[in-house]
Amino acid sequence: MEEFSGTTAQLDFGRSISLGSNPAIPVRNNATATPGLRYKNLGKSGLRVSNVGLGTWPIFSPGVSEEQAEAILRLAIDSGINLFDLSEAHSGTRAELELGKIIQKAGWKRTSFVITTKIYWSTKSDERGLSRKHIIESVQASLQRLQLSYIDIILVHKADSMCPMEGKY
């Protein structure tokens, strides 16, 4: 990846993406998938993921516009990255909402990318816990925000000491 300083990423074909006040994010674009990018089977899940995923925390932070986020995501897909990681804990619901809009606008084939998101629970007493009810509600809300029929990977963002593991299934 090309490194740069400042708030503009210079792409190797002469176009740049301004990142505003966001920290520098190295980007690159080639006509073919990025050299060195490999794909691996994710266990026995049937998913084949790129060895580099794109975490969306910096992309959907307050200093990055919708247009900038879309340009970065398109560049990732064009470069062969197919794994996108989201978390409600990092950007609230913005990442899922914006990614859902971008996916719909771009018309990407659903099987061409892998979405991983995390179930997060607040420390507020009315939002606390990882009960079956909370997990189902959280996944349903993520599906709606992402405008998808399924999410490939769901992770628990942090353990809930008040909810035993056997109560989660």
Quickly describe the structure.
With 169 residues, this protein is of the alpha/beta class.
Q: Explain this structure to me?
A:
Residues 52-165 form the NADP-dependent oxidoreductase domain. Keywords: Ion channel, Ion transport, NADP, Oxidoreductase, Transport. It comes from Culex pipiens (House mosquito). The chain has 169 residues and is of the alpha/beta class. It has one domain (37-167): NADP-dependent oxidoreductase domain (TIM Barrel, Alpha-Beta Barrel). 27% of the residues lie in helices and 16% in strands. The protein contains four helices and eight strands. It has helices at residues 66-78, 88-91, 94-106, 132-146; strands at residues 8-10, 16-18, 39-41, 48-50, 54-55, 83-85, 114-119, 153-156. The protein has a four-stranded parallel β-sheet with strand order 5-6-7-8, with helices on one face. It has a two-stranded antiparallel ribbon with strand order 1-2. It has a two-stranded antiparallel ribbon with strand order 3-4. The longest helix is centred in the last third of the chain and has 15 residues, at 132-146. The model is unreliable at 1-16 and 19-31 (pLDDT under 50).
Spans of at least 5 consecutive residues whose pLDDT stays below 50 are 1-16, 19-31
How far is it from the N-terminal to the C-terminal residue, by CA?
42 Å
Largest sheet: 4 strands, parallel
Biggest sheet: strands side by side, in what order? 5-6-7-8
